[in-house]
Write a structure and sequence with these properties.
This protein has helices spanning 5-16, 22-29, 33-45, 78-89, 116-125, and strands spanning 65-73, 94-99, 107-113, 133-140. The chain is of the alpha+beta class and 153 residues long. The chain folds into two domains: 5-45, Orthogonal Bundle (Arc Repressor Mutant, subunit A); 59-140, Alpha-Beta Plaits (2-Layer Sandwich), CATH 3.30.70.920. A four-stranded antiparallel β-sheet has the order 2-3-1-4. Helix 2 (22-29) crosses helix 3 (33-45).
Length: 153
């Protein structure tokens, strides 16, 4: 799908304000509501819009410790990776899981918990119990000067 200026504006606006009404969106991009809604539906059908979510305030939920964890696997086999990926998919603490290159680690996880005690429980009772995990290196976030979910369009 080739995106024109209206499509890009729609994508930019809904990334920032997902609950924007069609009328507000149409006004913001200088289109009438009907063609605006048609464009949004086309963007959804084309798969450019995966879905809509609410972004929650982690601190207000008591989730104050954010970490990045590098995972080293003992074997580099599809079966070992599948076991690991299936396991971490079920952990609510895991926000992101990436299979990576360029490091000694195989995976990079983004994990959020309440505090260091919760982190220790997560590490010892969940993460290190996954078959094939042979090494774990944790880094803790002190500050996040840039934090966005918006993609450049």
């Amino acid at each position: 799908m080739v995106l024109d200026k209206y499509d890009r504006l729609i994508l930019e606006i809904i990334q920032q304000k997902g609950r924007v009404s069609n009328q507000e969106l149409a006004d913001a991009i200088n289109l009438s509501p009907s063609p605006c809604l048609r464009r949004v539906r086309q963007l959804e059908e084309a798969g450019l819009i995966d879905g809509y979510v609410a972004l929650l305030n982690a601190r207000k939920l008591g989730l104050t410790l954010l970490s990045f964890i590098q995972i080293i696997m003992d074997k580099h086999t599809p079966e070992r990776f599948a076991i690991f990926e299936d396991s971490v998919t079920g952990f609510s603490e895991v926000l992101e899981c990436h299979l990576i290159t360029g490091q000694t680690a195989d995976y990079l996880l983004k994990v959020i918990v309440k505090d260091m005690d919760d982190f220790q429980q997560f590490l010892l009772n969940k993460l290190t119990r996954i078959e094939g995990v042979s090494g774990v290196h944790s880094s803790f976030v002190l500050k996040s000067p840039v934090k966005t979910t918006a993609l450049p369009v």
